[in-house]
Amino acid sequence: MIWTIFLLVQAVLLYFFVTNRSRSKSDPPLDKGVIPWLGHALEFGKDAYKFLNRMKLKHGNIFTVRVAGRYVTVLLDPHSYDAVINDSHSLDFSRYAQVLMERIFNLRLPHHQPAKEKTMMKKHFLGMNLSALTSTSSRHLQALLKAEMPQNQKDWKEEGLFNFSYSLLFKAGYLTLFGGEQNNNSTDPSSIYEEYKKFDGLLTKMARGTLKPEEKRKAQSVRLRLWELLAPAGLTEDMGASPWLQAYRRLLQEEGADEETQKKAVLMQLWATQGNVGPAAFWLLGYLLTNPEALTAVKREMETLETSLLDRPVNTPVFDSALEETLRLTAAPFITREVVQEKTLHMADGQEYLLRKGDRVCLFPFSSPQMDPEIHLEPQKFKYDRFLNEDGSVKRDFYKGGRRLKYYTMPWGAGTNGCVGKQFAINTIRQFVYMVLTNCDLELCDPNAQMPEVNASRYGFGMLQPVGDLLVRYKLRSTH
Ligand code: HEM
Q1: Which of 60, 400, 416, 438 is packed most tightly, with the most Cβ within 10 A?
Q2: Atom 40 in ligand 1: which residue has the minimum CA distance?
Q3: pTM of this prediction?
Q4: pLDDT digits 0-9 by tens, 286-343
């Protein structure tokens, strides 16, 4: 017994010795935190934005922190982002993505071919196929919105704006990509949404591996339910799933994924394609409702459009700026890469730092450029025309340290791993906002209501979500 304890203590000490480290001259500033092994994990997970700002004030634009046994180098200078984004040789995207896949979706893809998958995605979400998707999504949105409205035109219906936006866009997105028409025998989108919301609520804890035992059980049962609900999607053509999902299924089969693995992969795609659009539309509508000047400007622009035009590329600079501004304030992904080969990082200011093999590198564009007061004046404020020039054209000139920025906002990531669904997402949100503003009366229940707080534990996971909701009321607009 004594020997066992002795050996265990030795093993733990050896482990700390191997994983502990001190800063060498070529390393970025190192901040290990006071808790052995865990380092800064708790503070990072609680509110990454606050934590990274504190580190930035202490160390500057680049530093390495210890987080649950891993060393993560955080880079916050947007002028230097390309040095990370463009080096897929030393800095690998897939490894960390695989870690998340396992933690969140319990998924391990055999013979995964990310490049082939990317090509297939691009084929289906861009160009001609994009117009077909956009018009299918428009049809579903129209029907769902109509079904959601009170039958009597005089009655208002009250609801939280987050739930209203997320549920409608999720269901429309699900029907468009995963399963045919409403009311046929394919799985009902409402039950998928209800289960998905539970899953979404546990997502950040799953990603960090911090679920409590009873949450673990809940996560597993929700996942099982979703796998079952999604099992038929994209398998046979008569279910009406999109050509993209059918192609994805074929790719999985080619890679040798069994049925079990395919279900898990389909859930991952549900998250990748539906997890951000609804929350983005919520923030946009919320900012418009709480900023009457912005609402008037967007409505005025929308009045000049015809519904049918929304299936095709349209010129909506005011809407585009309002959306860009919304995403600047509420899109907060980490862009994470694993260092697979030692690399010297050349910063834009001439400094050089060594990135060590096995570490992770993380960009957090939300901190800078998006909320950087040197780039965006009064960054906490929603200004719908921030991305417009005086003459109404798109504003692309933003500066930091006297130099024009390539990345002045980065909600979609960048480079080869940037968002494939960007244009589809923009089209869908535009349609949704257009339909809501032209077909319905939508207003705040309390005219003085403020935007809800952000759920700080979601920094790093794409679109932010609110704590609580913004209560609104709506009805079909009367035509006279
Ligand atoms: C407002 C909505 C959305 C936002 C803010 C968003 C944001 C992002 C970001 C930041 C990334 C890059 C992740 C990284 O570099 O680590 C990404 C990747 C991706 N997005 Fe989106 N996205 C949205 C909607 C969509 C939609 C609607 C689809 C598909 C229909 C989609 C499909 C994808 C895919 C497939 C990737 C992975 C690319 C890869 O593996 O390299 N996204 N998205």
Answers
A1: 400
A2: 417
A3: 0.94
A4: 999 999 999 999 999 999 887 665 566 788 999 999 999 999 999 999 999 999 999 9
From the alpha carbon of 463, which atom of ligand 1 is closest? 5
Binding residues: 103, 109, 276, 360, 419
Q: Which atom of ligand 1 is nearest to the CA of 331?
A: 5
- What CATH number did the domain enclosing 394 receive? 3.30.43.20
Q: Does 109 map to a domain?
A: no
CA 385 – CA 186 distance, rounded (Å): 43
Task: Please tell me whether residues 234 and 380 are part of one structural domain.
Answer: no
Same domain, 374 and 418: no
Residue 325: which of 414, 394, 428 has the closest Cα? 394
- What pLDDT, in 10s, does the model give residues 208-250? 999 999 999 999 999 999 999 999 888 877 677 889 999 999 9
pLDDT of 425: 98
Among 211, 164, 171, 200, which residue's Cα sits nearest to residue 188?
A: 171
In this structure, the answer to whether residues 291 and 419 fall within a common structural domain is yes
What's 172-189 look like in SS3? HHHHHHCCCCCCCCCCCH
